[in-house]
Design goal:
203 residues, mainly beta, 13 strands, disordered C terminus
Length: 203
């Protein structure tokens, strides 16, 4: 589309990733739309926060490299598209990088997904404290909290503070051992016949 937007999140970036340090998604609307992630630089071991969009003909990516003291700690990050200035940007802890000349972000049918790309199936080892989406390009002052943006701001499209949420229903879950399911128990991709769940054993 041709409308401005911003993804904003507070993330915990580990020094050691359990599943690899490439393509740890913050949020994505599909690889052929817009995506926000932490990944390793292809030519070094440095980590970077990356925001990129697909214009319909090419990908435009902007990166902000992380310092050692920005790992193993909570880090405020943002990425977005400024339609008024034809710019995509990434913002990390008060510092912004931008790329100009972007007049469009391709629309996709994929849902906006946190910690996962619904198109490439890439997931994430990141931990999230908050995630927000705005229907405008936030300024540095707004991102830094100097100009306060609350969840009642008309630009807010999504607002999650995860430490404010918990499970309401704490009823223990009972396992139904009579439930039938199909379990893979052999080689050459063979699926054994349907068996009671309580009798199954995976290999």
């Amino acid at each position: 589309g041709e409308n401005s937007f911003t993804f904003e999140s507070e993330i915990y970036v580990p020094k050691a990733f359990q599943n690899g340090d490439e393509f740890n998604m913050i949020a994505s609307k599909g690889d052929h739309g817009a995506a926000f992630r932490v990944t390793k630089d292809q030519n070094s071991t440095a980590l970077k926060v990356s925001f990129y969009v697909y214009t319909g003909s090419e990908w435009v990516e902007v990166n902000k490299y992380l310092s050692e003291d920005q790992l193993d700690t909570w880090l405020p990050v943002a990425g977005g598209y400024d339609a008024d200035h034809d710019t995509v940007f990434v913002w990390v802890a008060g510092e912004r990088e931008s790329e100009t000349g972007v007049t469009n972000v391709a629309a996709t049918d994929y849902d906006l997904t946190l910690g996962y790309c619904p198109e490439t199936k890439r997931d994430s080892d990141l931990t999230f404290r908050s995630f927000r989406v705005y229907g405008k390009a936030l300024s540095d002052a707004e991102l830094a909290g100097e100009t306060h943006v609350t969840n009642t701001d008309p630009s807010v499209m999504l607002w999650y503070d995860f430490d404010q949420y918990g499970y309401v229903d704490e009823t223990p879950v009972e396992i139904d051992t009579e439930l039938e399911m199909t379990v893979y128990q052999g080689e050459e991709g063979k699926l054994h016949e349907t068996i009671p769940a309580g009798e199954g054993k995976t290999t």
